[in-house]
Amino acid sequence: MGNIESVNLDQVLIHAARLGNIPVIQEILSRGIDIDVQDEKGYTPLIIACYNNHFETAKLLLKSGADANAFDFGGNTALMGVSFKGYPDIAELLIDNGADLNMQHGNGGTALMFAAMFGRNDLVKLLLARGADKTILDNRGLSVEDLALQQGNHEAVTLLA
User: Fold this and answer.
1) CATH number reported for the structural domain that contains residue 43 in this entry
2) Which domain holds residue 27?
3) 2 contacts: CB under 8 Å, gap ≥ 6
4) Are residues 8 and 49 both part of a single domain?
5) What is the pLDDT of residue 1?
6) Is the pTM of this model over 0.85?
7) Is 53 left (phi over 0), alpha (psi -120 to 50) or beta?
8) 69 and 23 in a common domain
């Protein structure tokens, strides 16, 4: 019986993270559930909360021991997600809690590459200021500057120079 309950609580935790429902998350965590549980795509509650722009939820999960560098089945981290979506406050929170600026997903992309490709230039500035490596190449041998140029993001190209 306990096994069925933990599977259900895992699903509830993931759903609560998507909604930013802090009281439900606190209740589930008080029962000792694995905070880095993954859904069918490999998303952890932290990845989901960050991607959905739930700052306070992300803060709670990190404070409760969530892995800032956990990644989904494509190798994407929470920092990559917020760099793509454009949430600098959450990016700052993740970095302050040990997120690796230079992790690469399955195709070799980094958070900095996502920010540059999607025109999130406030994130490009933040990631560079916090020490992101702009010399990393993706699996095609492209740099963040190459990707910014491909997308016509001239501001990012200037920031990267």
Assistant:
1) 1.25.40.20
2) 1-87
3) none
4) yes
5) 39
6) yes
7) left
8) yes
